[in-house]
Design brief:
The complex is a heterodimer of chains A (360) and B (298).
Chain A: E1 3-14, E2 21-32, E3 36-40, H1 47-55, E4 62-67, E5 70-71, E6 82-85, H2 97-107, H3 112-125, H4 141-153, E7 159-163, H5 171-188, E8 191-196, H6 199-205, E9 208-213, E10 216-221, H7 223-228, H8 233-238, E11 243-253, E12 256-260, E13 266-270, E14 282-287, E15 292-294, E16 301-310, E17 314-320, E18 326-332, E19 345-350, E20 356-357
Parallel strand pairs in A: 3-8, 3-9, 6-7, 7-8
Antiparallel strand pairs in A: 1-2, 1-4, 4-5, 9-10, 11-12, 11-14, 12-13, 14-20, 15-19, 16-17, 16-19, 17-18
Helix pairs in contact in A: 2-3, 2-4, 3-4
Chain B: H1 3-34, E1 37-39, E2 45-49, H2 52-58, E3 59-61, E4 69-71, H3 73-105, H4 109-120, H5 127-138, H6 143-150, H7 164-189, H8 192-200, H9 205-233, H10 237-242, H11 250-258, H12 264-292
The chains are: A alpha+beta (360), B mainly alpha (298).
Chain lengths: 360, 298
Amino acid sequence: MSVEIDIHGVGKIFGQGSAAFQALVDVSLQIRTGEFFTLLGPSGCGKTTLLRLIAGFEHPTSGSLKIAGEEVAGRGPNQRPVNTVFQNYALFPHMTVAQNIGFGLRMQGRPRAEVEATTAEMLALVRMEAMADRRPTEISGGQQQRVALARALAPRPKVLLLDEPLSALDLKLRKEMQSELKRLQSETGITFVFVTHDQEEALTMSDRIAVMSAGRILQLGTPHEIYHAPTGRFVADFIGDTNFIDVTVVSVDGDRAIVTLPGGASRPARLPEGFRPVIGETVTAVVRPEQAQIAPDGGDMAAMLVDSVFFGTDTHLHLRLPDGQPFTLRRQNSGDLPVPSPGATVPISLAPDTLRVLKG
Amino acid sequence: MNHESHGWKWLLCAPALVLLVVAASGPLLIVAVYSFLSQGNMGGVAWEFSLDGWFRVFLTRDIFDPENVSLNAANLQVFWRSIWLSLQTTIICAVLGFPTAWFIATRPPSSRALWLFLITIPFWTNLLIRTFAIQELIRNNGVLNNTLLWISIIDEPINMLFTDFAILLGMAYVFLPLMVLPLYAAMDKMDFRLVEAGYDLYASRVRVLWHVILPLVKPGFIAGSILVFIPSIGSYVTPRVLGGGRTMMLGNLIALQFGQGRNWPLGAALAMVLLIIVTIALVFYLRAVDREGGRPNG
């Protein structure tokens, strides 16, 4: 698979002297042609800055940035084969929907016939044919979103950049636009770089995700890898719900270790790549709430039930481990199962191969 | 809400209403009535209906042959000059005001107030004094000519005072803030991400200016133009001080009729014509705003 965007050692500092703020720290990253790539992180983590560097609105303080094999340093946004869908859509209020969509093509100096044909094609692609002559203020938020997509896709960019494009929509519309985005991406074959702080959005839509915090990329991988094999505490905590358990290392063998759980039972746990803890060291391990269940017999640990919350499809049991740490267990309500009463001791078993040790 | 509190609100409006009726509508009505009366002997008006004032605005009778009626070229020329100078002033203010407003709108929010404050400083000084200051700057042995002579750019002073150039300079100087402020307001409302969007969609800087920024700040241009054009066309002090007696504008012509001319009906009719020109300009403005209507910035 070829590389569309090659970011190497990119740093970005805003301001100078004591007011200087380092938005990106030595970011290296390769985005592949045709993939749906997501930059995920809390606000202020540098994801939007990285997107603006690719678009050309900002210029890196250090490092190199290649798009389609060409170094783009010094090139403005109008000289890059990249288009942006802005968070608030940024549709031109003085133009109709069709004029908005055709804007990029007109600025490229394409012949009028081509502009009209492509505009019509794009209107059909986002199912907005009926709204062609409306103004952006005369259509709904979801429709504005579609127009913004069509406008950015019309010049056939190599890469489409999306800056939290769904954050302004209500839940139902957001779900609709998520599948719409996936459809557009597979129909056009264009590389999508998507910025979001919504981990669920990132997990459902992306081919690969880069989790960012404080200007760095903490982990890069498929949604599956990010969810099931977080390497650090931040990623484990940011993506989904997680139980952190302090365990003691008994033995290490390759990428596996035997650890002692609170309560004394020894169980196997996976180690992150390139991490070898010392025997006897206390490390943090994680297990997802749905990977634990109430054991019919002794189980792996015994915990005290603090309270339980009924969510319909499942019930969350908030427990306390023997060493005092909190632990959440998510039980599917496949039948009308009895819930233990608070204060009761509940035996817990962990699904095989789910316990993972975190780096640091 | 009860009746009593409603009455109170009217009472609160009353001083302003009285002032508006007495100070604005009253004199206007008097001027309108005067324009249809006959000329008094020692100035003033005689209470006798006459269309003579209106007649003389546009036409003139031969002194020796009262049957020989022709267009009043002198008055029409003043009309034309007033409109033309005001249009030029508006254009100069727009050309100078746009970059100024842009500069202020792109400063960090904390320093914008200071720049706007600086723009309004000239209003602190009396208009007449500021206009005499310009006279001092541009007269033949004034600061500007002396400097140019001293650095040998010119060999003899350029005659600037008492020309149309002087009037334009003075009016553009006086009315520039009235263009900058509404332009700034329009730019302040503008969503700068639209500029980025234009730039992202392959537009060069010039084309972003032309296709995105100018259409978006158009309401500011329209408001600024009307704020500059209307006082320009009626201005009195600037053409008087900087144009000398030679270049007259409508304001001066009207003042002349009420003063030395002692033809109050003609002065009143000229004032009414000025009012009509301003009204026409305002109608154009309102229609332009209407077309912009329902199209918020950003």
